[in-house]
Amino acid sequence: KQEVTQIPAALSVPEGENLVLNCSFTDSAIYNLQWFRQDPGKGLTSLLLIQSSQREQTSGRLNASLDKSSGRSTLYIAASQPGDSATYLCAVRDGGKSTFGDGTTLTVKP
Amino acid sequence: NAGVTQTPKFRVLKTGQSMTLLCAQDMNHEYMYWYRQDPGMGLRLIHYSVGEGTTAKGEVPDGYNVSRLKKQNFLLGLESAAPSQTSVYFCASSSNQDRPAETQYFGPGTRLLVL
Prior knowledge:
The complex is a heterodimer. Chain A is mainly β. Chain A has strands at 4-7, 10-14, 19-25, 32-38, 44-51, 56-59, 62-67, 72-77, 86-93, 98-100, 104-109. Chain A is globular, with a radius of gyration of 13 Å. The termini of chain B are far apart. Classes of the chains: A mainly beta, B mainly beta. The interface between A and B is medium-sized, with 27 and 27 residues.
C-alpha cells in the first residue's frame, strides 16, 4: 500500500525567504507526482505535475523535483510572499488511484 | 467552463438522516472521484468511476454509495449518516486515469456536519 509523508507539517518563514517542502512515498512505481495548493475552506489547485519519466518541473517561483529511486519529491518556493500562505499537498498516482500526503501548512509573515 | 461544481456547499444532518451530494463536470471527463478530507489530513478516496455507468470502491467506501448515471454527474449518497462522516467532501475529475501527464481537477468541496 502506497504511503505518502510530508515534512514538516507546518512551516513559518519571513517574507522573501526561499524554502523547501518535502514529500516522500513508499512505492516508486508511480505514474506521476503532483503538488497542490489548498487555501482555507477551498478546494485544491494544481501547481505542478511531474511525470514518472521527468526529474523536475518549474512554474514561476516554484520548482518541483522528483527522485523515484529514493521515493522523494521537493517543492522549492523562491522569494516567498505572504500570498504563498496555504497548505501544500503532494499526491502520487500509481495507475489506479492517487494517494495524498497530509500536507504542509505554510505561513509567510510580512 | 465551470469546471467541477459541487452541491450543496454546506449541510448539517442529524444522525440517521440520508442525503446525496452532487458533483458535476463540464469537461467531458471520463473519470470522476469522491474524496473526504479530515482536519490535518490529506484526502482519502471514497469511491471513483471510470466512465458512465461504472463505479468502484476506494480506500474508505463504508457507509457511502455512489452512482454515475450520466457522464457529467457523480453522486455520493449517505443512507444513514453518522458523526464519523463529518468531513469535507471533494469531488474530482480527470480525462484519463492512466496517462502520466493526467491531472485531476477538483471541486470547491462540501462541508458536512453530522450531529
